[in-house]
Design a protein that fits this description.
The chain has 211 residues and is an alpha/beta fold. The protein is built from 6 helices and 6 strands, in the order βααβββααααββ.
């Protein structure tokens, strides 16, 4: 995590909200960054999530942005899910999407349906017990739910990390000499038994705009 000292929301909010994501969802996120901004928005770039303004305090935004990692870093059998024939077929059987933001494109639609699925699977009563129109998006929900379950229950709490993204390159301080690892520095190498998630170059900055 990288927390800017002028971020409008407290660090504890970032730790609490991101920490509530299921571990098998979090393992598809490399870095979480917060930055001050007059406008609140967030986006995911290659598995790195940037929060601007007060969006880091919104749990649904954390789920939405992490959902882009699951989709675009190929966590699911049908990959990327948002452009797969399976997804389009199921989408075409429904009469609605979760909200107007999901109408942006299929990438954002999958992310919003992941928020729905996470709520349905983790909150007593679920989304379908709350919204009388939920059946209008049933096939989209069921597709995300099936894909996450077959991929290892990615949206369900519990378990341990089984994979992670490769470390990013070190960012040197301007003018500083490159040195060997300092004594006592944390070991961030991939431990035995942890698979490396292949990186994919994507950026949702153009469409992820949460007011």
């Amino acid at each position: 995590m990288c927390y800017h000292k002028n971020s409008p929301s407290p660090l504890n909010d970032l730790v609490d909200r991101f920490g509530r994501l299921p571990v098998h969802t979090r393992q598809f996120v490399r870095h979480v960054i917060t930055l001050p901004s007059a406008n609140g928005y967030a986006y995911n770039s290659g598995g790195n999530i940037a929060f601007f303004g007060g969006t880091l305090s919104n749990l649904n935004v954390h789920v939405h942005e992490a959902a882009h990692s699951l989709d675009l870093l190929n966590a699911y059998k049908d990959k990327p899910l948002s452009s797969s024939a399976k997804w389009i077929s199921e989408y075409n059987q429904d009469s609605a999407v979760p909200d107007p933001y999901a109408q942006t494109n299929q990438i954002e639609n999958v992310a919003q349906n992941t928020v729905v699925t996470t709520y349905e699977r983790n909150v007593p009563g679920g989304f379908f017990g709350l919204n009388p129109n939920a059946n209008k998006i049933f096939h989209q929900f069921a597709t995300v739910d099936t894909e996450q379950r077959e991929a290892g229950r990615l949206l369900i709490p519990g378990g341990m990390c089984t994979s992670r993204l490769q470390n990013s390159n070190p960012v040197p301080i301007s003018g500083a000499k490159v040195t060997t690892q300092a004594a006592g520095a944390p070991d961030v190498a991939l431990p035995a038994g942890i698979a490396m998630i292949a990186g994919v170059d994507f950026n949702t900055n153009g469409t992820c705009q949460f007011a």
